[in-house]
Amino acid sequence: MKILVVDDEHNIVDILKVNLEREGYTVIVAYDGVQAIDVALSQKPDLILLDCMLPKMDGFDVCRKLRQQMNIPILMLTAKSEEIDKVLGLELGADDYITKPFSVREVLARVKAQLRRLTFLENAHDVSSKVLSFNDIEIDTDRYEVRLNGKVIDLTLREFELVLFLARNKGQIFSREALLEKVWGYEYFGDVRTVDVTVRRTREKLEPDQQNYKYILTKRGVGYYFD
Fold this sequence. Notes:
- By secondary structure, the protein is of the alpha/beta class.
- The chain has eight helices and eleven strands.
- The chain has two domains: 2-122, Rossmann fold (3-Layer(aba) Sandwich), CATH 3.40.50; 126-226, Arc Repressor Mutant, subunit A, CATH 1.10.10.10.
């Protein structure tokens, strides 16, 4: 699989490139935001490691622009620890973030988990249930689409995975930690805000009434479930 590493610090790019290639990945690189978009669109990587602070165009704008044209895992690398920066990346469509300084082992674990989930989705279609129907919602596992009243909802891959997992386990309540393990595919190294932001972003797209959710519900103090 092909991974795009985007960072203006050449030593970080070199370290990530060496270790990712040692794991068998093909690695392409970019050192600024404009170059990142050009390389991503021309080379079609399977995953992007994207630094937030970049010359010419910052990582947040790169993420937003790429999300309009690509639906692949994006992991943001940030030296900032403020909660608002982490949440902003997730709101713009990043699948996760890793805070600098990070260990190479952590980055490799995140990358493997993301790509493992991607491969699983591509190979795990149940022939007998390619489309799951729940009243006015259809979940098409062949097209990676969720349709509400026949209209396709524009979900990222992670949002689609979240809806599909909860729907396949309808009525069962999952804690945020459990969702990180089941949907994100690994034990989380940091906080669980990623789940809350992804659920909120998915609800904004999926729920017709933002004051009265009817699909992805919360059991206060426990977790989330699909009704």
